[in-house]
Model the fold of this input.
Amino acid sequence: MISLALIAAGAPAAKVGQHAAAAPSMFGAVLALLAVLALIVGLGWVLKRMPGSGFKPADGLRVVASLNVGAKERVVVVDINGEQLLLGVTAGGINTLHRLPEPLPTPEPARLPDFKNLPNFAQLLQQRLRKEK
Done:
């Protein structure tokens, strides 16, 4: 009712959103994104350099073998300064299952297949197509 009286009296009407903050420009948005990315990289660099914050394995402790036996259950052989333990790892805890009297043999490293001695794919495909007819 008052606004109708002001309009009728010839008072200038206030613009809607006049006091609201202006929308950020594209330059401001890109600048803010770069600042956040620089902050993430900088914090990662600082955390990497801080003592005691690394994910280095403990000296004298090594996982020799691991086998999943369930969704969250595993059997793990751990070497601790030359002594090997068989551990049961579950969501609820870790239990010692057995002390191994002698260490497990070390598995040989994985090798890439010899690609030079593979059969000719075209010949195998032709033989297979002939057999199906």
In short: The chain has a mean pLDDT of 82. The beta strands are 61-68, 74-80, 83-89, 94-100. The longest strand covers residues 61-68.
